[in-house]
Amino acid sequence: WKDLIVMKINYVTGNKGKVKLAQMILANYPIEIIQRDIDIPEIQSLDCHEVAFHSAKEAADRLGEPVLKNDSGLVIEALDGFPGALAKYVENNLRAEGFLKLMKDVENRTCYWIEVLAYCKPGCDPVLFTSKTYGTISLDARPLRGYPYDEFFIPKGDTRTFSEMTEEEQLSCFDTKAYHELAKYLEGLEE
User: What is the pLDDT of residues 118-158, one digit of tens each?
Assistant: First the structure.
């Protein structure tokens, strides 16, 4: 890859963790991720695809340059997809303990973490790439590190919450398909 021209991508987010994750996953591609911390209004929807689509289009048109936007959420089968794209709002207001109270009498604790990447050029519709990391909701919070959802999200195939894992262990559990599909799409644009 060192001989290839590096494509620079404006990743519109205020979350340095999202940028670091993208840089780690895309390290083997000729892509440079540049964080652009600008405030883009988001539509209110449970659907991460809708939120990513609209915010990427708004960001690309406002900057006049191609952008990458991300929306992610927690989809819980027994709650008809709630909180979905409203995950950040719920996380900030309920925290782990409040969320687990909401799940107290829920037997089906199956869920997945969805991540939608939206690549958009100004004046165009975004192209979306989706990853889903499947898991379950624990019965109790296990606060060691990370975000409130990390305290109770148990990835499929493990018994520990994300909070109980190292960053490397967490990354190995994540479905990173969307990032690799994005990189292949961008390589096609360069040809």
Answer: 999 999 999 999 999 999 999 999 887 888 889 999 999 99
Between residues 143 and 72, which one has the greater pLDDT?
72
Active-site annotation holder among 71, 80, 150, 158: 71
71 as an active site residue: the answer is: yes
Ranges assigned E (strand) in the chain: 7-12, 31-36, 67-76, 83-84, 110-120, 127-137, 153-155
Q: CB–CB of 34/75 below 8 Å?
A: no
Per DSSP, the three-state class of 124 is coil
